[in-house]
Design brief:
The active site is at 448 (4-aspartylphosphate intermediate). By secondary structure, the protein is of the alpha+beta class. Helices cover 40% and strands 18% of the residues. The N and C termini lie far apart (73 Å).
């Protein structure tokens, strides 16, 4: 293996919650964005206090929810019990025991493709109905016209859909094949050999090169770094962009060469496969060759390399412990439900009949059936009347437009393309192309705070030390004190006087000494690793932007982090140029349960051992020595919108440290409850009577344009909720500064509720405050959801703004679902981190905010520095929160209006020809005889009308400037008036009038040329449809003009090509032309007149602005 420069890293030894309950641990990058409720178990701490408090009362609607049936899908993932495993370093049966390491993202294979795709297609009512109609043509009594007339359109629609599905699955197959065939080096007794990723098995030793993807879950055995460490990038797994640091097994790292691994005898114990990427319990047991004694070394998450992470430094050898379905990456793969837009549901209600007519869900089928029965009934139900009913059902089948789905899907593709090509919202990506029109129907906006409303770009703004406080304008004093403290001897920093003992531990330290201690603590207590470029510039890598901000601040103050590895930290004093070195004895990273991190270091110069710790005030206040200022100052900083961290320390004697080391090692070797035992040792030995050094306040800057965006969206009628894990004071301050709370709007705060009675009192007080902003903490929120869910949602959804603080991912998702179910409004959720995934998936529209600079070429989702996981669950991705304005007010408006108009016009196109068929049959003694057959039926919905009708996707009722200038116009969209039963019945009446007028006038005016009734009426029908398209257009586009002209030319040209239907000697006469013109004018001119009158006396709201 090649040698590389040692790279610094951190050692991961996570704290654990003191509770005996098992919680999921996580290396969240925000100290304030962590769950108070376990995300997987959905558990929370007891909130009710006394045991005799009322039992939780759930929404009755939840209890009545229908349980979904699950079918044994033969090619689905089977559920099997997972067990711990002990794997010898050199196993012979590793090929058989465990899951193969194959990546399978394909939905189908050669055998299952057609059955599954056809099943999915014929679940759609449109397709099933037309299949039955087409099959009926094989029954002689039901046969009407040519069979291809019915199978042609159906086959075309199925061909388009199946081809698209096949292409998508083929692309998935190619990606799977590429990933499975990637070659890796495997270390065997015969040396190194290349094997593809799909052939890797549990027990293999795999060599991973720099920038290579980890193919399976592994234990890190050795690295090329002398310290036994390496960096990995985990953005594809947990969404965090910063590098993580991993450690090799110490005894194996000390081996003389890689080949020595082949002679080591031992085994690795690994706990059962599970989803938690931040937790692992294992041991490495081997026999020491020198002493012959069996030794056991603990293995934790710091020794693992998870699948889909990337090695960022050096070269490593890993031992495979989980493969395929057992890997963390596969077990965490989400399969969210397919989201269906509201407009699709509304169209479906107009498509077919349901179990009961009260819903009027499938009205088009009712119309078809009613017309068929009416035609037979008017003839007296004579003879084989039921056969006639079926024949009329076939004749009127065009009422149910099979092409509607294709038109809408193509339209949505156009909308998605327009969004992605908009230069003003560059970087926006549409992941779910079926939902663009949903952006025009949003009633509630649910947003994360950190990284979404704020930049996740931290800057230390304040430092408070009890009797002293420093802000940006006085930071130069800290630099001066720090230089003084390092320049003088420690004895000079002790102020002595009459009656004061001049001893280091008891003397009253001056300001410079205290400043030095807290700056030194901040420079040491972190998980930041410096990376020095070729030109000598220092950049920092860490999983938390808070820590990077603090380390940058210590650099500005004159104490720079210049080096770090697993064993030591190096600081440079800028004033003198001296380098200070410290040994890292233990490090305890931040977790969501402990909300604090600590480090034990030894000063190489003085040999003093010190435990430093920093964390959230809610936990640190009970650990540090008594003081009378911490709680007050934390509140003051939070009200300024600053994120607070409490810093403390404790000096350890050698005896105390050795005692801790012994107890902690014993806890590390335990298999059961390892983390809990380790945490118990930390709390018993270290976390007692810590000396409080100070309090830091870090500012998270607002995103560009957030204030203006929130104000515009509020004016557009949206009710905005901010769901954050931050403390209540900080969240309130951000709500005010971001204009989430409008001017002169009161803030009603609910916090620290313990019993249900208090909830009722607060809700009663809130009912009278309809124009205030509610701010509620997570504990009180959970109490509301447990006991008074209906009452809380009823009140909260009426408020213009709500801020939920200390909110867990589970609570975020639950609130999203409740708002959807209770209000029946469309909900948009936007976030930028892994803790927002559940909220994004639960919403009607999930949006992820990305960081454009980091992810423009690789990911979608708002894009924030928290990573990619949320982006993979999102329907849309934006690079700026401010892009919501144009997405919703302009693109959302256009997508919804266009889809509504397109769908209704396609339905009208089928209704009018069916009405003409009904009139024709009625005039001929209600005989079920087809008016149009063959190419006329096929061409009517395709070459003769499709282009002009589809060009409606380019229409716009108002200009972009007006839509953005007057956000109040958006309120009209949320009412759903563009596509409703009212508009449907309006188009139904139009179809009845136009179809009847064309057919009756064709018969009256062409009584002598009755044999030409087909060409006469069909020509008038086509011209009528083209004029109707022109009537519906608000803003002409050149594509619309071209489609109208080209369609007319195609129709005229087809008359020569279809002599069966068109007699050109008759069509070229003057009588044909003027009489067709009269019929077309009678059918369409009244609608033009009605439109002019309506615009004059009842104009749309937007016309008043143009």
């Amino acid at each position: 293996m090649r040698n590389t420069r040692p790279i610094e890293l951190r050692k991961l030894m996570p704290f654990q919650a003191q509770s005996s309950r098992k919680y999921r641990t996580s290396d969240s990058i925000h100290s304030d964005e962590d769950p108070l409720i376990d995300e997987e178990l959905g558990e929370s701490a007891p909130l009710t206090g006394p045991s005799d408090s009322p039992q939780p009362r759930r929404r009755t609607t939840n209890n009545r929810r229908r349980k979904k049936r699950t079918f044994p899908w033969p090619f689905g993932n089977s559920t099997r019990k997972q067990n711990p495993r002990t794997i010898p370093l050199h196993a012979d049966d590793k090929q058989k025991k465990y899951a193969p390491n194959i990546i399978v993202n394909q939905k189908y294979n050669i055998i299952t493709f057609l059955p599954i795709v056809l099943f999915e297609q014929f679940v759609v009512f449109f397709n099933l109905y037309f299949l039955l109609v087409a099959l009926s043509q094989f029954v002689p009594a039901l046969k009407i016209g040519y069979i291809f007339t019915y199978f042609g359109p159906l086959c075309f629609v199925l061909l388009v859909t199946i081809s698209k599905e096949a292409m998508d699955d083929f692309q998935r197959h190619k990606r799977d094949k590429e990933a499975n065939s990637q070659l890796y080096q495997s270390l065997t007794s015969d040396g190194f050999r290349s094997i593809p990723s799909s052939k890797i098995r549990v027990g293999d030793m795999i060599v991973i090169q720099k920038d290579q993807r980890i193919p399976a879950d592994m234990i890190l055995l050795r690295t090329t770094e002398d310290s036994g460490s390496c960096f990995i990038r985990t953005d594809q797994l947990d969404g965090e962009t910063d590098w993580k640091l991993r450690l090799a097994v110490p005894s194996l790292q000390r081996l003389s060469s890689d080949d020595a691994l082949n002679v080591v005898r031992g085994d690795i114990y690994a706990d059962a496969p599970h989803k938690d990427i931040h937790s692992f319990v294992g041991t490495f047991t081997h026999v020491d060759e020198d002493t012959g004694i069996e030794q056991m070394e603990p293995l934790g998450v710091e020794n693992t390399l998870w699948t889909n992470t990337v090695l960022a430094s050096g070269t490593a050898i890993g031992f495979v412990i989980y493969t395929g379905k057992d890997t963390r990456a596969v077990m965490n793969t989400n399969h969210p439900k397919t989201k269906v837009g509201l407009i699709d549901r509304e169209i479906n209600r107009l498509a077919k009949i349901t179990n009961y007519l009260g819903k009027i869900n499938k009205i088009l089928f009712i119309v078809t059936l009613a017309m068929s029965v009416a035609m037979v009934g008017l003839n007296g139900f004579h003879g084989l009347w039921y056969i006639y009913v079926f024949r009329f059902l076939i004749l009127f089948s065009s009422i149910i437009p099979i092409s509607l789905r294709v038109n809408l899907d193509m339209g949505k593709t156009v909308y998605a393309r327009q969004i992605e090509k908009d230069s003003e919202i560059e970087g926006t990506i549409v992941r779910t192309s079926t939902l663009p029109e949903e952006l025009g129907r949003i009633g509630y906006l649910l947003s994360d705070k950190t990284g979404t409303l704020t930049k996740n770009d931290m800057e230390l703004k304040k430092l408070h030390m009890g009797t002293m406080s420093y802000s940006l304008d006085t930071m130069d004093e800290i630099m001066s004190h720090l230089a003084t403290a390092f320049a003088e001897n420690e004895s000079a920093l002790i102020q002595t006087g009459p009656g004061v003992v001049g001893m280091s531990g008891k003397g009253r330290r001056n300001i410079a000494s205290r400043v030095k201690e807290i700056v030194q603590a901040l420079a040491l207590c972190h998980n930041v690793t410096p990376v020095i470029s070729d030109v000598g510039d220092i950049t920092y890598q860490a999983s938390s932007p808070d820590e990077v901000a603090i380390v940058k601040w210590t650099e500005q103050m004159g104490l720079t982090l210049v080096g770090r590895d697993v064993n030591k930290i190096q600081l440079r004093v800028e004033a003198s140029g001296d380098t200070l070195e410290y040994d890292i004895l233990h490090i305890f990273p931040f977790t969501s349960e402990t909300k604090r991190m600590g480090i034990i270091i030894r000063d190489r110069q003085t040999q003093e051992v010190t435990f430093y710790e920093k964390g959230a005030d809610v936990v640190m206040s009970g650990i540090v020595q008594y003081n009378d200022w911490l709680d007050e100052e934390c509140g003051n900083m939070a009200r300024e919108g600053l994120r607070t961290l409490v810093v403390a320390k404790k000096r350890l004697s050698e005896e105390m440290y050795e005692d801790f080391k012994k107890k902690y090692h014993e806890a590390e070797l335990s298999i059961h409850d390892r983390n809990a035992r380790k945490q118990a040792v930390i709390e018993e030995v270290l976390e007692t009577e810590l000396e409080l050094l100070g309090l830091t306040g870090v500012e998270d800057k607002l995103q560009d344009g957030v204030k203006n965006t929130l104000e515009i969206l509020r004016n557009a009628g949206l009710r905005i909720w901010m769901l954050t894990g931050d403390k209540i004071e900080t969240a309130t301050c951000i709500a005010v500064s971001s204009k989430l709370v409008s001017r002169n709007q009161n803030i009603h705060q609910i916090s620290k509720l313990k019993v249900p009675v208090e909830v009722l009192n607060e809700l009663d007080n809130l009912r009278s405050k309809v124009d205030c902003c509610l701010v509620i903490d997570g504990e009180s929120l959970q109490l509301c959801l447990d006991h008074f869910q209906d009452e809380f949602i009823d009140v909260a959804t009426m408020l213009p703004a709500v801020v939920c603080c200390r909110c867990s991912p589970t609570q975020k998702a639950e609130i999203t679902r409740l708002i959807k179910e209770y209000t029946q409004k469309r909900v948009l959720s936007i976030g930028d981190g892994g803790n927002d995934v559940s909220m994004i998936q639960a919403a009607n529209v999930g949006m992820y905010k990305t960081n454009f600079d980091l992810y423009y070429f690789s990911c979608v989702g708002i894009v924030g520095k928290e990573g990619r996981q949320a982006s993979l669950a999102a329907d849309f991705s934006v690079t700026q929160f401010s892009h919501l304005t144009k997405l919703m007010l302009w693109h959302g408006r256009n997508s919804y209006k266009r889809s509504a108009k397109l769908s209704q016009f396609v339905i009208h196109r089928g209704l009018i020809i069916s009405v003409m068929q009904a009139v024709f049959s009625a005039l001929f003694y209600f005989a079920p005889i087809a008016l149009y057959q063959g190419m006329l039926v096929v061409g009517y919905a395709t070459v003769y009308t499709m282009a002009p009708v589809f060009s409606l996707v380019l229409d716009q009722d108002v200009s972009e400037e007006i839509a953005l200038l007057y956000p109040e116009l958006y309120k009209e969209l949320t009412k759903g008036r563009s596509l409703s039963f009212r508009t449907f019945f309006t188009w139904l009446l139009i179809s009845v009038y136009q179809g009847g007028a064309i057919m009756i006038l064709s018969i009256i005016l062409f009584e002598e040329e009755f044999i030409h009734i087909v060409s006469i009426s069909f020509t008038a029908l086509i011209l009528n449809e083209l004029l109707m398209v022109a009537l519906e257009i608000n803003t002409w586009h050149r594509v619309m003009v071209i489609s109208e002209i080209v369609t007319v030319l195609i129709y005229i040209g087809s008359m020569w090509l279809l002599p069966t239907y068109f007699d050109m000697s008759f069509i070229l006469t003057g009588r044909f032309v003027w009489k067709v013109a009269v019929i077309t004018a009678v059918s369409s001119l009244p609608l033009y007149v009605a439109k002019i009158i309506k615009r004059r006396y009842a104009p749309p709201s937007y016309t008043k602005l143009t």
